[in-house]
Amino acid sequence: MIPNLPEPNETIGELTKLLGQLAAFSDGEGPGVTRLLYTPSWANAQRFLADVMAEAGLAPRFDAVGNLYGRLPGTDPDGDVVLTGSHVDTVRSAGQYDGAYGIVAGIAALAYLKKTYGEPRRPLEVVSFCEEEGSRFPLAYWGSGHASGLYDWRSGADMADEDGVTLGEAMRDCGFGREELGECRRDDLAAFVELHIEQGMVLERMEKRIGIVETIVGQRRYAVTLEGAANHAGTTPMTMRQDAAAGAAECIVRLEALASQWGEPLVATVGKIEARPNTPNVIAGAVDFTLDIRHADEWRLNAFSELALSEIERIALRRRLRHKITPWLATKPVPMNPALARSAERVCQHLIMPYRRMVSGAGHDAQVIAPLCPTAMIFVPSRGGISHSPSEYTEPRLLADGVAVLAAMLYELAYEEQPT
Question: What is the pTM of this model?
């Protein structure tokens, strides 16, 4: 059954107010929002959200790493939890929607359901995961990774940020990393639904208001080094050069052409390049660059990755360049739950809300929680596809659309009697 859903005007004001208030918790004086794990702005944001949850009639609690949960108890004391939410941390100079929208939308949805329908059968919770972005310490998904059992906070405490502050020190300074706060792993989840901005331009370009994610892509990341011979730019004939920069340029153009030939949803990106000695009148003796490959199908992800690496090797050998390729990230594609995707589709059809089934090209907490329980991911459009930027923006009406779809899905999962 599709329940009565909140009118846009009921949620737009509260959403925009909370997003603006949350954006004020930011370190530094630069543009945008900078809220890194276990910093003062992070701690203040989590405390603020705990107060907002309490005001909405949800019982807030923190776990040992600082994940914040707001709970609406169910009439079945032994019922597993229906969870929604996202992450509170940001990249540096971020926008105000990435992660934060999923949290405030979850609070709004639970508050509406409580006010309209009272207690659910199954407990409902909204989570503000402590970290997802990997912006301060050499890790990512620190919040959902603890909920899923991927991490143990006791074994990661020695990792340090760029200022030499260890994760353990930062965690303790914020009041976490203590045994008495209890275990972080969740073994009581019935379902997880994450609402998020798309961070891409597909929905806007196709004039769709909701994206229903079918799969979160797998990723392969590599560090590539090509080594030739640094030499004088004026006295070394073109036929006698071992130019690492020219070799890297050929590799990059070739990788772009191959990715275009393979077609969507495959993408390949060289995002960072450094030449050595990086001097105007010296032929580059070495070039380091990164390679990021993503696809929703594991076989095609592996096949393209093998082809890409063989092409780099072929170009390096022909140009008499030494090469080194170091893999440093390999994640598998993660499918979302088909039944939950169908639920989101039914809601969109009922509301006559244009939607699209799609792949997520970015990583999200949902992929970490998916092995624990049925998981869904819902997108709303991002203006211009811009994200991780102060220019990140989603129209308030579209934010309200996401809350309506989320509230309907949570009602079905937590209020309706589930088949056994």
Answer: 0.90
